[in-house]
Amino acid sequence: MSKHLTIAVDGPASSGKSTVAKAVANRLGLTYIDTGAMYRSVTLYALQSDVDLDDEVAVARLLDNTTITLEDGKMGQEVWLNNTEVTEAIRQEDVTRHVSLISSYRTVREKLVEQQRQMAEAKDVIMDGRDIGTVVLPNATQKFFLKASAEERARRRTDEYKQKGIQAEYEQVLADIQARDQYDSNRAISPLKKPHDAIVIDTTTMTIDEVVEAIIQNIQKN
User: Fold this and answer.
1) N or C end of the chain, less CB within 10 A?
2) pLDDT per residue over 94-106, tens digit each?
3) Residue range(s) of every CATH 3.40.50.300 domain in the chain
4) Closest Cα to residue 155, out of 15, 37, 12?
5) What residue numbers does the annotated binding site for ATP cover?
6) Which helix (H) or strand (E) holds 213?
7) Residue 161 pLDDT level (bands cut at 50, 70, 90)
8) Which residues form a coiled coil (predicted)?
9) CATH number at 30-121
10) What is the mean pLDDT of the chain?
């Protein structure tokens, strides 16, 4: 078991995991590890490399020559793929549409989970994703599971796209999120599920600040 503080934050797409985890990291001086960004980076690389996304062996082979790093930048955490910054590129709709497939591959997950565990062994971290409390850090100091209605999550994602100048229709975003929920919850490898010992927070009607405060209060009680 790690001697460091390890906070696991799980939940479905657009439940607020990344935004909340970043804020908690800033408040408590923790290192934020965005595991979703790591899977998105692999997905982006696969798209750029023009490999068959349905070919797990071909996708996994890309990882033999792939370096993914998370670094603190002036505007927040930066994601670097093979020495190229991809912080914004990995949020493109094409990447979002395919990341669940790529992250379902056992060989991809095994390699990235190993990296994520090594990060948690080195320092105090807060890590968010789909299977942090169940697979990556089953012995985490504390676990949280964020949830929100599909409609609210679709509204958030649509607003996020608009702020970035990306064209997106609410109904399509909602359909994509519902499809992703179904896929993530039923995949054979590391499906999305609530850790039995996680604190559940429904963020549907909560502000980011309220969720952050709720998590910090729970951490400081223990």
Assistant:
1) C
2) 998 999 899 989 9
3) 1-26+125-221, 30-121
4) 15
5) 11-19
6) helix 208-221
7) confident
8) none
9) 3.40.50.300
10) 91
Query: What confidence score (pLDDT) does residue 192 get?
Result: 87
Q: Name the burial class of residue 97, with classes exposed (0-12), middle (13-18) and buried (19+) by CB atoms within 10 angstroms of its CB.
A: middle
Do residues 14 and 27 lie in contact, with contact meaning Cβ atoms separated by under 8 Å?
no
Residues facing residue 79 across a β-bridge: 70
pTM, entire model: 0.83
At residue 184 the predicted structure's pLDDT band, cuts being 50, 70 and 90, is confident
Measured over all CA atoms, what is the biggest interatomic distance in the chain, rounded to whole angstroms? 49
Residue 206 identity (one-letter amino acid): M
Supply 206's token pair: 């909560």
- Candidates 114, 123, 124; CA nearest to 68 is 114
Binding-site residue numbers are 11-19
- DSSP letter at 198 equals P
Q: Which residues pair with 127 in a beta bridge?
A: 8, 33
5, 3, 54, 10: which is closest to 144 by C-alpha? 10
The residue behind tokens 């607020």 is 16
Indicate the pairing of strand 199-202 with strand 142-147. Answer: parallel
CA distance 59 to 43: 9
Does the domain at 1-26+125-221 match CATH 3.30.2290.10? Answer given as no
Q: Is 190 helix (H, G, I), strand (E, B) or coil?
A: coil
Question: Which runs of E-coded beta strand occur in 82-141?
Answer: 84-85, 125-129
